[in-house]
Amino acid sequence: MRIFRKQAFPVDNVRRFLEPGPIVLVSSRWNGASNIMTMGWHTVMECSPSLIGCCISSANHSFDMIRRSKECVINIPTFELRDAIVGIGNCSGQAVDKFRKFQLTPVAGVAVKAPSIAECYASFECRIADASLVRKYDFFVLEVVRARVAASPKYPRTVHYRGDGRFMVSGSEISRRRKFRPENL
Amino acid sequence: MRIFRKQAFPVDNVRRFLEPGPIVLVSSRWNGASNIMTMGWHTVMECSPSLIGCCISSANHSFDMIRRSKECVINIPTFELRDAIVGIGNCSGQAVDKFRKFQLTPVAGVAVKAPSIAECYASFECRIADASLVRKYDFFVLEVVRARVAASPKYPRTVHYRGDGRFMVSGSEISRRRKFRPENL
């Protein structure tokens, strides 16, 4: 599987990759073990600071790892990883070493202890910024503190979950930049 | 512009259209006036009750209309409405009647007073379920209380905002249903 060569990327701009709504892989580390989960319920909340809101079900093994370590990495997989995306979402880190099972390469975190995934297009190291809605909705507000994005391709071919085992694959690109007010870009 | 013939749809399943991350048009009504805004910062939070989390900047005219009326409609536009999506996001409801300016047809709400948009593929009538993060993050938790979805096409061609005036257009569909555990679909 291809390993993406990534570069530093401004954390304030991670919305360019998250706002279109791709499925992401969330990696975590706690108590000497690493894990990965598949996540589709996330939204940009602010550019600066760079805040992401997401629901991580308390039924997931990752829930406690992220809640206790207060950290994780949001990785963006491309179409090539579609079977790993499904596989990771359909087994538990309690029973399986997912990096090994899905032949993914952990890359040591710099700002966080959680590892990134070398085979993903982008990796955003995050710390929990606000846990006030965790108990009620399993909702975490994360701050992206370090971002790395592949230099090419410019726009990744991402997969977007529809529920019911179906995915939409990202298609063509259009620009309407000239019709925007500068402050709305 | 095409008007979609919509049917009742189970509110617990609106994730099928929202989880892939499309740009949506949010319509509202307050004090005798209707308005529309373009929104890209939203996430599914729960299926039952059907909860959607979204950021609506307090700089938007819609912010006060939604906060005061405690209601809105999330409408899903397709590719055909791309120029209306951009236009609606680049003018203010304080100065413009957006239904008139963009030749969109308001459809009276049933569970809420806010109108739906006839030219959109799907319309989800929502009530504010939790406003506890509004002051800090402009973040609203909405409950979908009535959903209407076009009978065809089965999968709409949606647009997904990348920032910087660029959009990704939804592409092909794939199914991995047989690789899912039933409880994970």
If you had to describe this structure to a student in words, what would you say it looks like?
2 copies of one chain form a homodimer. In chain A, 16% of the residues lie in helices and 40% in strands. The first copy, chain A, has 185 residues and is α+β, with helices and mostly antiparallel strands. In chain A, strands 1, 2, 3, 4, 5, 6, 9 and 10 form an 8-stranded antiparallel beta sheet that branches. A two-stranded antiparallel ribbon of chain A has the order 7-8. Chain A has a two-stranded antiparallel ribbon with strand order 11-12. In chain A, strand 4 and strand 5 form a beta hairpin. The first copy, chain A, is globular and about 50 Å long. The interface between A and B is large, with 58 and 58 residues. Strand 12 of chain A pairs antiparallel with strand 12 of chain B, so a sheet runs across the interface.
Lay out the secondary structure.
Two copies of one chain form a homodimer.
Chain A: E1 6-9, H1 15-18, E2 24-30, E3 33-39, E4 42-46, E5 51-55, H2 61-69, E6 71-76, H3 82-89, H4 98-101, E7 106-107, E8 116-117, E9 122-130, H5 134-137, E10 139-150, E11 159-163, E12 166-175
Keywords for this entry:
homodimer, eight-stranded antiparallel β-sheet, alpha+beta, 12 strands, 185 residues
